[in-house]
Amino acid sequence: MSDHKRFFGKTFAELDAQAKEAVRCAVADLHARGIPTYHMEGGKIIETAPDGTRRELDAPPAGGAEEGTE
Questions:
Q1: If you ran DSSP here, which 8-state letter would residue 61 be given?
Q2: What's residue 70's pLDDT?
Q3: Looking at the domain assignment, is residue 66 inside a domain?
């Protein structure tokens, strides 16, 4: 494989797999500590609790500032 298809001696597919594994480990660590995690799914914010329950959160207000915090 040519050098331009490699980064740090790995293919982009290998780096992608390592990044996904790192995220899985980080999420597992946070959940083990009782901390929920958050991600976007279909344009919606999803909270995943340590027990695996998931819920859709309300979208943040326009401009990103919470009401009353300006």
A1: P
A2: 45
A3: no
Residue 2 domain-assigned (yes or no)? no
Other CB atoms within a 10 A radius of the CB of residue 58 amount to 7
What range defines the domain where residue 34 resides?
Answer: 10-56
Phi/psi for 37 (5° steps) reads -120, 160
Q: What is the pLDDT of residues 19-66, one digit of tens each?
A: 999 999 999 999 999 999 999 999 899 999 999 999 999 876 666 555
Report the C-alpha gap between 47 and 1 in whole angstroms: 41
Question: How is residue 10 written in tokens?
Answer: 């790995």
Q: With H, G, I as helix, E, B as strand and everything else as coil, classify residue 2.
A: coil
Contact 59, 43 (CB under 8 A): no
Is residue 63 situated within a structural domain?
Answer: no
What predicted TM-score, i.e. pTM, was given to this entire model? 0.68
